[in-house]
Amino acid sequence: MAFQSTKDYIVSPELALAVNAAISLEKPLLIKGEPGTGKTKLAEQLAASLDTQLIQWHIKSTTKAQQGLYEYDAVSRLRDSQLGDSRVHDIQNYIKPGKLWQAFTAPKRPVLLIDEIDKADIEFPNDLLHELDQMAFDVYETGESIRAKVRPIVIITSNNEKELPDAFLRRCFFHYIRFPDADTLSAIVEVHLPGLTKTLLTEALELFFGLRDMAQLKKKPSTSELIDWLKLLLAEQIPAQALTQSKEKGGLMPLYGALLKNEQDVALVEKLLFMAKRAGR
User: Fold this and answer.
1) Could you tell me how many helices (H) and strands (E) the chain has, helices first?
2) Which tens digit of pLDDT belongs to each residue from 253-271?
3) Which of 39, 124, 160, 213 has the fewest Cβ atoms within 10 angstroms?
4) Alpha carbon 38 to chain centroid distance?
């Protein structure tokens, strides 16, 4: 089945093509893009469209590649041996399968999400090269070999916080999610907020893209933050006219805290809006 937009998730033709190409090639799909552009949501929607299990491995700065395979709890085994626990005679009781193990042994081809791989140590991707290539690994404590029954569909996301090794990149199919244009963003908003008035959406998008066009902004607002902002505008029953008035007065838009996330950006936007208002007089 070819992946495409769903009622809950809008994908560009380029992204749909990348997903289908990675599935055909049986290569991990490496997705990069700004935070909030739907990288994680992609894996969720792909699993839903295929009616299969989604196995999520969320990477942190302390995550090690070995944890994705399995973890051997030697400390618990030592404690149990001191207490005379009968479980100590079976080493399997102290081996916890990781996310790759779960994906390799799933009864139906799953979607494995390795989320925000760039948060981990620089060696983390290299430590997974063999396992992702061969779809197999050995459990040294028991001598068994874990091999994938079917190759899982692997989605790897990155926020570009650090460069990934060339050897790892060669094994992936790559796609960068460009920030959506106004038409695509309108379609995305319609999915999340059906029935939103065109007037409010038009005014909101003008202010939103105006913020993103400010070159000195430290953190540009994302798609998810736009949707949060629109939800708040609806909840507080703030009309489109209030957005227009804030723009005309050279002040911040209502509920700006959903879009601007640090004091430097708030001060910058206030300054630029004030200067634009003075220049317009």
Assistant:
1) 13, 9
2) 899 999 999 999 999 888 8
3) 213
4) 6
